[in-house]
Amino acid sequence: MGMRQIELLKRKLPRSFYDRDTVLVAKELLGKCLVRVSAGIERVGRIVEVEAYLGPHDLAAHSSRGLTERTKVMFGPPGHAYVYFVYGMYHCMNAVTEPEGHASAVLLRALEPLKNVEGRTQGPGLLCKAMHIDRRLNGRDLLSDDFYIAAAAEPESFAIAGRPRIGVDYARHWAKRHLRFYIKGNPFVSRA
Is residue 189, in this structure, part of any structural domain at all? Predict the structure, then answer.
């Protein structure tokens, strides 16, 4: 992606994009660009891998434990970031989907670096570290001027692969559902 195309990324996805079926949103986030401006530096990465979490009935979703201080963002309106800390060392970022109260979200698993992104981006924790995303962004509106997801100026066509989510073996039958989606053949996917 050239610099001119990156400059055209100011077309933020509207709230209505997130207020739809979570699996559809997950698949359609592939190829979109995550934009994060911090300390005057604009970082841009193309989303190449995601996982869908379908609400309280999905035993792998944090919302399956009900409304808590940690999960209240998931129960909130669509188009906000749900950022949490895991294993005492990694932040993970999700985009909240579907109507308020539904408690669904899409985890961003991997990015293809496009602009000012240093370090590895294959995996949700590495992605957040490279993009300078931490808990201070939990609940942040993804229509903010310094933190948003945008459509690429010239969308590419690509094949989407579906696989089971990673690290959710505890979720019984939900562990085997094909709710991880990625751009087939992209070298920045965390696992094929």
Answer: no
The CATH number that applies at residue 139 is 3.10.300.10
The number of domains in the chain is: 1
Give me the count of residues in the chain.
192
Range of the domain at 88: 3-183
Cα distances from 107 to residues 10, 39, 40, 70, in angstroms, run: 22, 25, 26, 15
Query: pLDDT tens digits for 29-64?
Result: 999 999 999 999 999 999 999 999 999 998 889 999
Q: Look up the pTM and report it.
A: 0.93
Closest CA to 84 of 112, 98, 65: 65
